[in-house]
Amino acid sequence: MSTSFFIFVVMEAVLEQIYDLYLRHSVISTDSRKCPVGAIYFALKGERFDGNKFVLDVLNRGASRAVSDDKSLIGIDNVIIVSDVLKTLQNLALFHRRKLGIPILGITGTNGKTTTKELVATVLQKKFKVEATKGNLNNHIGVPLTILSMDQNVEFGVVEMGANHIGEIDFLCRIAEPDFGVITNVGKAHLEGFGSFEGVKRAKGELYNFLREKSALAFINADNVQLEQMGEGLSNKFEYGIEKGVLKGCVRDVNNPFLSVNWGSESMGCKNSLETHLIGAYNLENVLCAIAVGTYFGISSQDINDAISSYYPTNNRSQFIKTATNKIILDAYNANPSSMVEALNNFTNMDHISKVAILGGMKELGEDSVLEHEKLIEHISGLSISTLILVGDEFADFTISTVSTLKFDSYESVNRFLKKSPLSNSLFLIKGSRSNRLEKIVPFL
Q1: Which pLDDT score is estimated for 246?
Q2: What's the confidence (pLDDT) of residue 180?
Q3: Cis peptide bond upstream of 178, omega within 30
Q4: According to the model, what pLDDT value does residue 247 have?
């Protein structure tokens, strides 16, 4: 166990006092603007904010208690003073996780972890009362809040874990204490924090390390060489894939525009078929992971198919949108070199006379940023795309002679262009890092 772990830095008596209050009120809030009546408000602080400033206001608006580390609030009714609010929140989550005693599956990876989390939770709901990470609450604050959202009626937890520095996944594992785990894949993302691709593997592999420590089970894509190598020494595995694994699957159709899948056991063959509402062959590994989890926990093939077929992606992830004049693949929640290439390859394989790719710059690549954008431009130059719209300073110095290309510094600039020169009867791919806010372009298409 990591010697740097914070376990029970909060005085146990204070922690038990807060936990007793939590059991009575059951709602934790860290947002002073949206703190529900009766909730326990944790006054977190960061570089640009200090939740302690809003403690009195939150209490006046009906919060039952406030947890603060501002000593000037000592003696005020319904304020609990601790040495560190964030560590108290994290310890409370761990305390609660151990009291719950339910199975928890942890999910991390470079690409696809949120989609995989949603699919896995949807499948497990066919048999269990499931609580899963909401949205993207997958960091040192989000994971504790996810754990604390689980009440005594929950039978299974699915916890997404994100990271941009080595050590973060290990830290989150010490809070969630997963009994099962999934690494969706490893790729080039957050290189600014991880330092290199090897750093990415080391960071994501911290989930496998925790599972080894507990002799817990990992669901592994056996076709992924990197994951297979990282998973060496795991005593418990459930492997899936296209070529290898106890459970196998294959793409039946990917251009309709949704992904259709055949799947089955290694011994029985791919006798099951399902239609998804997901775009792209790259989502096959996410679907297979959900099928593998469902199969392991005894969910019938029909229920697995029904669950996955009923899932519609949201939040700017692989969404398919039809407007009056265009069709749009909106995948603008995030982007990195590997996810960009996969999305573009799938896009160019789709049948349409006019294909327009709107791409935003990839962030957090550190000193590799110029090289990775150069590689992306080289890749695009060999693809069949009618028009390319590049957004962001990262593309300023690059040119492509094989594709009609337009460059803009922001989504606002793109929208001004589209307002004057509308594009119609086209299939669009919109993809870029979150800060580009490319989803704002959709109303102009």
Answers
A1: 82
A2: 98
A3: no
A4: 80
- In this structure, the number of other CB atoms found within 10 A of the CB of residue 320 comes to 16
* Same domain, yes or no: 324 and 303: no
Q: 175 is in which domain, residue-wise?
A: 101-309
The answer to whether 327 and 428 have CB atoms below 8 angstroms apart is yes
Residues 292 and 336 in one domain: no
Checking phi first, is residue 350 left (phi over 0); if not, alpha (psi -120 to 50) or beta?
beta
CATH of the domain at 407: 3.90.190.20
Q: Which residue ranges in the chain fall short of pLDDT 70?
A: 1-11, 189-193, 253-255
Number of domains in the chain: 3
- 122 with 267, same domain: the answer is yes
Residue 7 in domain: no
119 and 227 within one domain: yes
Contacts of residue 303, defined as CB under 8 A and 6 or more positions apart, other chains included, come to 123, 126, 127, 294
| 295 and 356 together in one domain | no
Q: What is the pLDDT of residue 351?
A: 87
Domain of 33, CATH number, reads 3.40.1390.10
Cross-strand bridge partners of residue 358: 389, 430
Is there a single domain that holds both residue 333 and residue 412? yes
Q: How big is the chain by its Cα radius of gyration, in Å?
A: 23
User: 141 and 258 in one domain?
Assistant: yes
Looking at the domain assignment, is residue 132 inside a domain? yes
